[in-house]
Amino acid sequence: MLNIAVRAARAAGDIIVRAMDRVDLLNITVKSRNDFVSDVDRQAEHEIVNILLRAYPSHAILGEEHGAQGLAQSDYVWVIDPLDGTTNFLHGFPQFAVSIALFYRGKVERGVVYDPVRQELFTAERGAGAALNNRRLRVTKQKGLSGALLGTGIPFKDQSYLDPYLGMLKALLKDAAGIRRAGSAALDLAYVAAGRFDGFWEIGLQKWDMAAGVLLVQEAGGIVSDLEGGDAYFETGNIVTANPKLHTPMLELIKPHLTEQLRYRGG
Ligand code: IPD
Ligand code: CA
Ligand code: CA
After folding, report:
1. Dist. CA 154 → ligand 1 center (Å)
2. Which residues contact 234 (CB under 8 A, 6 or more apart)?
3. pLDDT, tens only, 104-131
4. What do you get for the CA distance between the two ends of the chain, in Å?
5. What's 2-136's CATH class?
6. Angstrom distance (rounded) from CA 122 to CA 216
7. Model pTM?
8. Is the minimum distance from the CB of 99 to ligand 1 under 6 angstroms?
9. Does residue 184's CB lie within 6 angstroms of at least one atom of ligand 1?
10. Ligand 3 centroid to 36 CA: how many Å?
11. Tens digit of pLDDT for each residue in 18-63?
């Protein structure tokens, strides 16, 4: 199943790279405030879904651009972000990726994040580790925030939690060596798995932004939680992830800035 996901991610990557030098000719639609989609996102997702369903016709699909199909009929669900980092792509800023995850009975079992510009293929299989171009990945051993390089995403669509977010940013910025906002959550998570980032946090993500990346981090030995340290990151869309030694210090600095809106109220 991982091989099929890799084939689909590479095929989508080819579509994206071919379109890179004709971005000005693309049809671009605004889905909601600051949320854009182009023909390339749709074509790439179409190609991924075709490849997956050809191999596994009974599996269900949850794709960012085409929505859900067959969720009630299968225990297997492919969660797809055909182009994570659309805004970067549309600006020719070369930081974006294809993200494909396979859930079985609600748990992520396989994950692929593919950066078609650098041709970096991040893969993870539950229980079997994470790899970059077939080389095993480990998170860093960074102990505290001092000297740490963190990744984040600045809330730009729903800005209702901008103030608490800026509080968190300020708190973490004081101690960390640096914070980067690169523009693709899937790659940010892959970079935590690869030890390029010591940690990463973001508010307001969707399942397809993070599913494959979550498994990459976990299989590389990292910790993934919601903002309160629980495991409701898919439900809340809020995520904090780091190596096991850095995760708690990050949560402690985030905690004072939690508002009611940011707390998990589910069961
Ligand atoms: C976005 C990217 C970005 C994150 C946004 C996502 P998209 O995905 O992952 O880094 O901050 O919240 O929506 O829209 O480019 O697929
Ligand atoms: Ca995305
Ligand atoms: Ca996308």
Report:
1. 10
2. 207, 210, 211
3. 999 999 999 999 999 999 999 999 999 9
4. 32
5. alpha beta
6. 8
7. 0.96
8. no
9. yes
10. 9
11. 999 887 877 777 767 766 678 899 999 999 999 999 999 999 999 9
Give the Cα separation of 40 and 237 in Å (integer): 25
Ligand 1 atom closest to the Cα of residue 208 is 16
The pair of structure tokens assigned to 95 is: 């930081």
Domain ranges, ordered by start, for the chain: 2-136, 149-260
The residue ranges of the chain whose pLDDT is under 50 are none
Q: Residue 102 corresponds to which tokens in the numbers above?
A: 């396979």
The set of residues, in sequence order, having a beta carbon less than 8 Å from that of 260 and lying 6+ positions away, is none
Give yes or no for residue 185 CB within 6 A of ligand 1. Answer: yes
Structure tokens at 113: 């994040």
Question: Any idea which architecture 149-260 has in CATH?
Answer: 3-Layer(aba) Sandwich (3.40)
The predicted pLDDT at position 267 comes to 65
Does residue 186 sit in helix, strand or coil? Answer: helix
